[in-house]
Amino acid sequence: MTCPMASITKKIIRGKAYFYARECQRVDGKPKIVWQKYLGRAEDIIAVMSSATEKAPGRPPQEATLAEFGAVAALYDLAGRLRLAEHIDRHVPKKGDGPSVGTYLLTAALNRCVAPCSKAAIGKWFQGTVLRRLLPVQASQLTSQRFWENMDRVLPEALAAIERDVTLQAVREFGIDLSRLLFDATNFFTFIDTFNERSTLAQRGHSKEGRASLRIVGVALLIAADSQVPLLHQAYPGGRPDAPTFSGLTDQLAARCREIAGQAEHITLVFDKGNNSQENLDAVAQGPYHFIGSLVPTQHPGLLAVPDEKFRSLQPDGLAAVRTYRTLQEVFGVERTVVVAFNQNLFRAQVRTLLREIAKRCQRLRQLGERLHLRRAGVLRRGRRPTVESVRKKVRGWLRARHMSELFQVEVHEHEGLPWLTWRFDDRAWKHLQDTLLGKTILFTDNEDWSDAEIVRGYRSQYLIEDSFRCLKNPRHICLRPQFHWTDQKIRVHVFCCILALLLCSLLRRELHQSGIQRSIPALLKELSGIREVAVIYPPEGRKKKPVIHTTLSQMTPSQRRLYEALGLSRYHSA
After folding, report:
1. Which of 460, 482, 511 is the last residue of a domain?
2. 329: domain range?
3. pLDDT band at 2 (very low <50, low <70, confident <90, very high)
4. Whether residues 24 and 127 fall in one domain
5. Which end of the chain, C or N, has fewer beta carbons within 10 A?
């Protein structure tokens, strides 16, 4: 075997030349690359060689420090374009010495983006990032007490004014498409003590994450379908249903749409059926926008009974699995365009889900019947003696899930002093369910000139706001919880910082998408966070008392290099 020798190889990636050092060996008689190292572009190699010969002292370094660079610098740049700290400071002026309120809230928002932690831990995180030389604040000033003092000065009316100004700045600076706006609400569980009476926002109610034993805080959100940029939010008591929440926000929604209306000729608001009420739809009809909503299918049996031959395929419009039936119908007292959409893919998914749930109930009922039979035969004697009422209660619990009580016919009566169970699966009900309800969504709109495909696509964009809520619940990025606050005022400011983090991350994805880079927010933040700033520290030379510091960046992959260049992060690198 011959001794390997390193060589430099050029690769063309998306029209650009990148250089690699590599070693080849013959393995089993065939040449194989056994070692490879990325060197960069030609200008990068020249710059490194020049820096090494001209600047590096002729002695070994004393130590090296690492700082988070890529994600933090990219988000800081977007915050600068939004004039985020400036808008905050205009409405909450600085008091006394030290950093401004805008600096504190900007630091908190950037932390939520990349490494969510408590206010007590932000100082340590800050010291390990490039922010230590970008923001006019020292890590020692970022104590939990100072955060609390500055958060305490941000009153609800100031929050509303700041959000309005930041929203308008985002629309102007980034050219956000406002033709489709999406509204929805969800809730977040907290660990606020049951007997803490200082919070009216944290209430018990229907937790959408299944944490019924915990107090929850609700958050309503309005976003632009264009890259999910948030435009309006409100924190509200967690025990309140969606429809009253929407009702309480209609005036704010209308005001925000009027503020941004100059940037869009036609605004369509999209919301789901949980927000339907006569009051809400009257308010929407009077607002400066059009709308697309959905109806509860079971409340409109006539539309569900429309025969298949009246549906038309949307395959020519690029929706091969969708068929629609269009009509005019009175909805909450007003005649509207109604589209019944049947989605074959949704139908199959719902059938699979229901069949799994049906199989579970069949097994449980079968096992219950066998245990009751063994009890009557005297074979099973241990345990509490069942009663007719206890068996009925157990069966009702099993059939409480959607459609189960319609599909199972169950009778429980007493026989020889013990419960007797008979049951059967209703095949006719199952067929009726498949023929009428499954796979169907009933949409209504005042966009009478829109095609069926446009209406379906408009409503489908609702998934984007659901994705935004998933981002707010991502434990690694943005992460609204856990929150370490228990008063309404602090909770509102904390939620606002998280919405600002969502805004920055959404704009980051939008900017890269326009550069041809399509990634999710978590994927972008993970890859950008891998770009580190490396400070190599040399001991003092001669009579100098200060050490010599040379700064460079960690080795980047081609993908990281592409992100670095697309975002223009070189202007934040301190050579």
Report:
1. 460
2. 291-460
3. very low
4. no
5. N
